[in-house]
């Protein structure tokens, strides 16, 4: 009998748990940009061994959510105006390309899944508490993932997932500095789906780009004083 399999599996599970906990707190802004991440403190906070915490931090470095500094350990990746603008432009370029592929390749099942995701998002209450915020965030993420799922490109979807996480961090950070805006994001989502159902690639990509830049403008004003 292989007696090493169980410990190895347990270590992997603990590392995955640590990644999920750290990613969640970074995206929600509970771990602040540029905040020092001390392995022992995180180990005590999560009740997870230091080895798994260190491995999780190293994995999150590759996702761009954590920075590693020689001889100084780890810290949450900082934010900046230039980074946000670059992130948004990159996201627009990659996701519009993925959306064009989805429009060319996606079938009835993809359309049905998208309509279902839109319905769930529009039926999910606007966040007014931590519980509602989590439910809305999940519905919102699901909508954007389903929107692009028809592209059939695993690499494109992997990059889109990474860019979504980075954008989500900025959006959540902005919510800590501002109240709800008069923006009708639900209408933006609905108009985007209408363009997709009409198979109008030019309109759909234009609406998706405008949707992301509208969010970016809100974040710039809230976090960086409109710089």
TrEMBL record:
| Pfam families in UniProt | FCD, GntR
Q: What Gene3D superfamilies would the database entry show?
A: GntR ligand-binding domain-like (1.20.120.530), Winged helix-like DNA-binding domain superfamily/Winged helix DNA-binding domain (1.10.10.10)
Q: Does the keyword DNA-binding apply?
A: yes
- Residue ranges occupied by any HTH gntR-type domain in the UniProt entry: 12-79
Top-rank taxon of the source lineage equals Bacteria
Instruction: Please name the InterPro entries in this protein's record.
Output: GntR_C, TF_FadR/GntR_C, Tscrpt_reg_HTH_GntR, WH-like_DNA-bd_sf, WH_DNA-bd_sf
Q: Which UniProt keywords apply?
A: DNA-binding, Transcription, Transcription regulation
GO-annotated molecular function:
DNA binding; DNA-binding transcription factor activity
Recorded protein name is GntR family transcriptional regulator
Species of origin reads Pandoraea bronchicola
